[in-house]
Specification:
Helix content: 40-55%
Structural class: alpha+beta
Radius of gyration: 23 Å
Oligomer: single chain
Number of helices: 10
Shape: globular
Order of helices and strands: EEHEEHEEHEEHHHEEEHEHHEH
Distance between the termini: 42 Å
Number of domains: 3
Number of strands: 13
């Protein structure tokens, strides 16, 4: 099942074109009827249509499909907002909604889930068309809370609180433990090596089992989620998976069970893999940019 995307675009590829649009079952059915050879590309979060003339065909279909539909949806969304408006210091109403907040990863993540939302570099703000008013309304409490949390004064207040000796020592200890790149596992429930797994520290690839017994105080302080089983906790070494490994990883059919969570590792779901792939792609782009600046 394809994800919702925040815009629709058409990109030309060497043997076809890809198209993305907000998920709607009827729209997908009409798209598949028009392009029976199309297939969903999870790595691109888009539909891939093969063929030399694919770009022209997809662009023409988009124009026919969306020109009238979107205009009607925008008008209906504007009417819904006029009937039941919501206001905020971070929201402006013009020809579209304009969302302008301090930088916040949470705000960005929430807006990326709103269909048709897009970043406007000229305004240095997000634009959201009226057709997405209900999605924006649903996510607005989280957006507003995250924006307030990211305000300069709020950041300064938190920084002052974090200067407390006990809190500082706690953060240093947690950072030092993360740098050791070790994770407790039960000796009677060993994870497979060189395979993408989800843990209480996110997606990891276990490299090896040291066999060293985990001290109880360390496990309780840094790994309270690993609690189940009758075996002894021992250390395993790990690394972060690459984007290529995340793309090839096979998702679980069902969410982790309580026993899986207590064991401390489980097969990732498709939702977790999609988020990890996005983070990995963003990290790769940042590394490429940093290397180009250094050169």
């Amino acid at each position: 099942m394809p994800d919702r995307t925040t815009d629709f675009n058409v990109w030309q590829q060497e043997a076809g074109a890809t198209a993305s649009f907000p998920y709607d079952r009827l729209t997908v059915e009409r798209f598949r009827e028009a392009f029976p050879q199309a297939r969903w590309r999870d790595d691109l979060r888009a539909w891939f249509v093969p063929g030399i003339r694919a770009e022209r065909r997809v662009t023409q279909w988009m124009g026919r499909e969306w020109s009238g539909v979107l205009a009607y949806a925008d008008q209906r969304g504007r009417d819904a907002f006029d009937f039941d408006p919501f206001t905020s210091r971070y929201l402006e109403v013009a020809d579209t909604f304009v969302v302008r907040t301090p930088y916040s990863r949470t705000v960005i993540a929430e807006l990326r889930e709103v269909p048709w939302a897009s970043w406007d570099p000229a305004l240095k703000a997000w634009r959201v068309p009226f057709r997405s008013v209900e999605d924006l309304r649903k996510r607005w409490p989280a957006i507003e809370e995250a924006a307030r949390y990211a305000e300069r004064e709020e950041r300064r207040r938190r920084a002052e609180n974090e200067k407390a000796p006990a809190e500082t020592e706690k953060r240093k200890a947690e950072a030092a433990e993360r740098r050791r790149k070790r994770y407790p596992i039960l000796d009677d429930a060993l994870p497979p090596l060189d395979k993408v797994l989800t843990t209480h520290r996110g997606c990891l690839v276990f490299k090896g089992i040291t066999g060293e017994v985990v001290e109880t105080a360390i496990a309780e302080r840094f790994y309270p989620g690993v609690t189940g089983g009758s075996g002894t906790l021992i250390w395993a070494t790990w690394r972060r998976p690459s984007r290529d490994e995340l793309l090839k990883a096979w998702p679980a059919r069902t969410p982790p069970s309580p026993d899986d969570l207590a064991r401390g590792w489980w097969q990732p779901t498709i939702e977790v893999l999609r988020e990890e792939r996005r983070k990995a792609a963003s990290l790769e782009r940042a590394q490429i940019t940093r290397r180009s600046r250094e050169n």
